[in-house]
Amino acid sequence: MVARRAVELRRSFDEVSAGSLHASRVEWLRVVAAHYAPLLSFLQGVTTTRGAATHLSGSGSAGHSGPARQSLLDILESSDHDIIDWAWLCDCLGTATCRDGEETTQFLADALTCAGGHATAGAAADAAVARHVQRLASPTTYVLERCLSELHGEWEEVLRTRFGEATINGLDAGAAHQFRVRAVNAAGAASPSGRATVINTLLNSPPPPRLARAHVRATTNRHPRASAPPYGDVVGVGGFERRFAVSSTTVKLVWLGATDKLTGGHGLNGRGGGPSDRILAEWTGAAGEDEGAVSLTAVLARYSHGREDATFDGKVLPDVLTRLGAHRTHDAEDTALRAAWDELRDAARDVVRTAHFAAWWNADVVTHILQRDQGVPAGRSAGGPSLGTVTTYRGSGRGTEVHGLEPNTRYKFTLRLVSPRSHSRLSPPLEVWTAPAPPSSPIIVRDETKAIVLNWRAGPGGATKYVLESRLVNSRDDGTAAQAPTPTVRHLAAPVRAHVRHRTNATAASYDWKVSYEGHETTVRVCGLQPRSTYRFRVRALNDAGHGGPPSALTQASTASEPQMLVPRRAAEQFSVRAAGDIVVGDTILFTERLLVDRGGNGALLGEPARGAARPLASNANRGNCRSRNATGPQHVGDRTVAAHVVAEAHYTKKGVRELRLEIVWCTVSSHDAAPYVLRPGDVTQRDAAHVIQFQAFRQPWVDEHKRLP
């Protein structure tokens, strides 16, 4: 197709030019549009530079502020010149690209090759055009050379290319290389070599850091008769924090040291031999044959200016590093340059001694830089990559303990190697979840003969779920001290009875820590306990990864010796605290509400929630229809006094409503008409918190009343 367009281009031009190299622009475009439709489409898709347009327009297009590349057809149609020449058309096509990005140099060559059978211009003109085509078809060749010995001026050719960039593979990691470029034209004439550039290849990227193993300590604070747990003092948790050194605020990480695997097997300077051998050879003059691509001796001699004390000023340290190819390493972050200056400077004179610099430069010492992101708290999504925003360690060690982290937060740690000569890319990230902070110690809400209700608060950062553990301390029940039941839980947020109730013989295992509850709630009822017995409780928090933090402080509680029944006749004694807007989950409350009945409907209470509502009597049904409700209005049939446990709460932000889920303890009504609306003990209903405190409301004090609110 390209060859066909070439023939059409020259043929159409010859039809209008009548054998000359100039043609009428308007006439040629008319011929192309009438007889060479494919060529017209081709010219529309060919774009050329704005500079090429100035050759045609002379002045009008010189100040054009349009796109950098324009369609050749648009240039021709908008020109104010009536005559175009073949040479200009060749120039445009030599700098143009097709619609698909293909360069048109070959197209132009084909056009001029085919021109021999169609052009009628003189031999001189054809020769000039042919030379023009040869120049465009044979672009400049670039020769890339690499230095073998700077002292002896030895260079080798690496590659030849027609492009302005190249990738060199197979180089040693962490080694110095010096490159230069010279240009060669089509006739073989070469230009002088350009200024050489010193480049130090990167060190190999290290593997990601790893979590250090934790040192398991002997379990303490165990009952004398308790047996040793099989996994230390961890119950109900995967033991992650027992195997790895991760806490809620600290993480201990380790990594591999810098070995030949990381530096390409040639040391950090790209040559064999130890640091002392290289330093001795360089400063005794024996290293002249082995300094390679970059001569440290020559660089230091240049910047020390022949001083007898062989020193150079600190302000030229960046220039020295640039000449040695290490400027990219020490410009990556200002702290690297400051660290180099602090290590090299002579504090007394504020200069750098060349001998000291040479020893530092040739030492195979790698600095490990550990970095982390800002962290993503649990329950939040990462907004974007933020690796390496905080440097947590810099040194030559192979591990560190990172402090100052937030609990229950996901961090990503990366490692970078830095030597005096070069540096590595960041390692792949290590993702670490810090453990949740310990919750508060369990708070005793109320005690019963065979159950204890406990509440706790999440630590900073929250948690995904909790593990409540219990342990029998002693039993004061006569004749039953040898019997220790397994505690079970009645979850306050759902009316589910304890599903395990059995007794075991008195063994050492009776005094071990046992899992009493595992879930998301922070208020539970532990049932199945021994009357008149003492237990200890603790709570452990888990994060999304299932890793548990340290347990909370211990709480010791005893079951009641006698049942304490909540009854209406003792309401004034048992509900002694005035409740306002501070009702929380775990409270046992007493409140009064008015009973308003839909007089025109079926006798249902107005505002009564569907779940837990009392079923009206049949005699109250069919007292009217829905149309008469608004006309007659609601009927007040009495008041209802309710005692209930607050087992859960829900917040509706948009409505600004806080709903309480209540488990009924007892209920009384003020009149016979209100009797059908008595709530049965054990029923579960829900009320708006504002509705509960609409009239006077009271609550039962907690056993740990002073710990009830934060």
Low-pLDDT runs:
55-65, 115-125, 218-222, 225-238, 260-275, 479-484, 490-508, 610-631
Give the spatial strand order of the biggest sheet. Answer: 28-33-29-30-31-32
Main beta-sheet annotation: 6 strands, antiparallel
Strand coverage percent: 25-35%
Rg over alpha carbons: 44 Å
Strand segment tally? 33
- Sum up the overall morphology in one term: elongated
Helix count, per DSSP? 19
Structural class by secondary-structure content: alpha+beta
Mean pLDDT value: 75
The termini sit apart by: 83 Å
What percent of the residues sit in helical stretches (DSSP H or I)? 10-25%
Plain-language structure description:
The protein is α+β, with helices and mostly antiparallel strands. A 6-stranded antiparallel sheet has the order 28-33-29-30-31-32. Strands 14, 15, 16, 18 and 19 form a 5-stranded antiparallel sheet that branches. The protein has a 4-stranded antiparallel sheet with strand order 6-5-7-8, with no helix packed on it. Helix 1 (2-17) packs across helix 2 and helix 6 (86-94) runs parallel beside helix 8 (123-137). The longest helix is centred in the first third of the chain and has 16 residues, at 2-17.
Keywords:
alpha+beta; single chain; 22% helix; 710 residues
What does the secondary structure layout of this molecule look like, with pairings?
Layout: H1 2-17, E1 22-24, H2 25-35, H3 37-45, E2 47-49, H4 50-57, E3 69-71, H5 72-78, E4 83-85, H6 86-94, H7 105-114, H8 123-137, E5 141-149, E6 154-161, E7 176-184, E8 197-200, E9 210-211, H9 240-243, E10 251-254, H10 260-263, H11 275-283, H12 296-304, E11 311-313, H13 317-323, H14 327-331, H15 334-344, E12 345-346, E13 351-353, H16 354-362, E14 367-372, E15 376-377, E16 390-395, E17 399-402, E18 409-418, E19 430-433, E20 443-447, E21 451-455, E22 465-475, E23 488-491, E24 514-519, E25 523-527, E26 533-542, E27 555-558, H17 571-574, E28 577-578, E29 588-598, H18 629-632, E30 634-652, E31 657-669, E32 684-688, H19 689-692, E33 697-699
Antiparallel strand pairs: 1-4, 2-3, 5-6, 5-7, 7-8, 9-10, 10-17, 11-13, 12-13, 14-16, 14-18, 15-18, 18-19, 20-21, 21-25, 22-24, 22-26, 23-25, 26-27, 28-33, 29-30, 29-33, 30-31, 31-32
Helix pairs in contact: 1-2, 1-7, 6-8, 7-8, 11-16
